[in-house]
Amino acid sequence: LHDRDALAFVEVYQRTAPAAHAVARRLLGRTGHVEAALRSVYSDLWLAPPCDGSLIRWVRGRCFAVAAADLRHRAAAPAEPSVATLLDDLPTPTVHHLTRAERCLADLSERGRRAVLLAHDAGVASADQPDPDAADLIEAGLLALADPDAPPETRTPSGVEGLADWVLGLLPEADAAAVTAAIEGDRELAARTVALHSGRRRLEGLPASPITSQRVLADVLAAPVGPGLEPEARPLEKQRARRGGLGLVAASLVLVLLAGVLALTARAPVDQELAVAQSSPRPTRSARAPVDHELAVAQPSPRPTRSAAPAAPRATARPQRRATAPRIVPPARNAQQAQPAPPPVRVTIPKMQVDKRLVGLSVLSDGTLASPEDYGAPGWYREGVAPGDAGPAVIVGHVDSLDGPAVFFELETLRPGDKAHVKRADGTTVTFVVERVERVAKENFPTQQVYGPTPSPELRLITCGGAFDNTTRHYDDNVIAFAHLQRPRPRDETGREKDETDREKDRRGSSRSPDPAADA
């Protein structure tokens, strides 16, 4: 590894590792696979142009990203690397072997070379990968390309036939034939290559979940790093990768960071919980249920009366894991309202780029509110207040899913004045204006503010947020947007809406004396 390459990696690492560590922990820390995520981050940096010509640099970056620091400690950022650390970090395969592999890649077409590298890096946990040791076998095949006279007794297992067909579909015919023949020809090299990956966890049975987008790249580079490396939520559309400041030694990698697609190959499921666990004033500290898939919003029986006290509900995630959740004060219909508003069918939140049909949510037999089955669909508690009725209507949505951000992922980006439009079954639309957005600890949930009766129509949008607790298996906080109904503007005699100037004239006119003599 040339010193210039090492210095470039150190420079990039210094400027990205703390934020990358925080973001990876936010996405994956709950399952303990932050190291696997960061390994993918830094290996992708070395795979992207113009660095993809050096397999040595790629392996160095990949191995160092895993070994540089103990990322299992949530409170510590990765240690600052040194060139000596990089140079001492070469695993079992020698530079000679890696150089041979580079020569093999050089003989392939550019498309074939890239296909092999990407297949090697991303294939091990891919749902499309027919062989669990595919990455090792691909690398062994590359090494064997430089040794076509490998002894016939070192044949790989018969399960490679499926892999050969898979590689054949990726590469030009001539390249595919060479790689396929090599993969099937050298078990010793395959075994030697396994040593390279001896520290890599095998995650059979867990679906691959690549999060590949410029927005995640922006999150990695632009997320602020505060105490505990917990990045505050920011509007993703406003986040930008930092430009400049890397110096000449890392100029090429700046282009990679800004223009490349950063793939965080999630080796374990991204959290799918949306646990809106509520508490009444002065709650007792009962055990909180680990919630992965359920939307634990406890509710009483349908259509409660004001005098009915809700039973102590339970928040459940899976049948084998149950715990008692705190009480909450449910949203109740205004008893004086003669005709309830029509039910909502769709919610549109322009700031969040959300335009989704609403699903009705009912109370389960255990007293908890059912969660939307679709992570892209928000849900409305249909036995509570309908949007437009006096009182707080409640709409909830998942914050994330197996595939990344869910429908309410950007709820915390709302600001006062932003609007939410709710279309109702009769074709009418009511508009709510956001007053404030709060992130509160679930154990200090403001029950009365969220569910207490209000004289006018209001709306609550709720999801999860804050840090993820690996012990309880859910987020520590809730994100709540409080909004009030936007009243229609007064109109003049022609039916035109009065603007601020018109209303000011009306106020001045009404304050004048009605006595004509006084005007004289």
CATH topology of the largest domain: Sortase, Chain: A
Number of helices: 15
Q: Residue-averaged pLDDT, rounded?
A: 55
Low-confidence stretches: 46-95, 121-136, 142-148, 150-164, 186-336, 510-520
Number of domains: 3
Say which CATH homologous superfamily of the largest domain is assigned.
Sortase
Question: Which structural class is indicated by helix and strand composition?
Answer: alpha+beta
Can you give the helix content as a percent range? 25-40%
* Biggest sheet features: 9 strands, mixed
Q: Any idea what the shape is?
A: globular
Amino- and carboxy-terminal Cα gap:
95 Å
What's the CATH architecture of the largest domain?
A: Beta Barrel
The CATH class assignment of the largest domain is Mainly Beta
Q: Order of strands across the biggest sheet? A: 7-6-14-15-17-16-11-10-8
Number of strands: 17
Strand fraction band?
15-25%
Oligomer: single chain
The whole-angstrom Rg is 29 Å
What can you tell me about this protein's structure?
With 520 residues, the chain is an alpha+beta fold. It folds into three domains: 1-91 and 201-270, no CATH class; 93-197, no CATH class; 297-485, Sortase, Chain: A, CATH 2.40.260. Helix content is 32%, strand content 18%. The protein has helices at residues 3-28, 34-47, 55-67, 83-87, 95-107, 110-122, 134-145, 160-170, 173-183, 187-196, 214-222, 251-259, 447-451, 500-511, 516-519, and strands spanning 209-212, 263-266, 297-298, 314-318, 321-324, 344-349, 354-357, 359-361, 368-369, 379-381, 391-396, 400-401, 404-405, 419-424, 429-441, 457-469, 474-485. The strands form five sheets. It has a nine-stranded mixed sheet, with no helix packed on it. Helix 2 packs antiparallel against helix 3 (55-67). The longest helix is centred in the N-terminal third of the chain and has 26 residues, at 3-28. Residues 46-95, 121-136, 142-148, 150-164, 186-336 and 510-520 have low confidence and may be disordered.
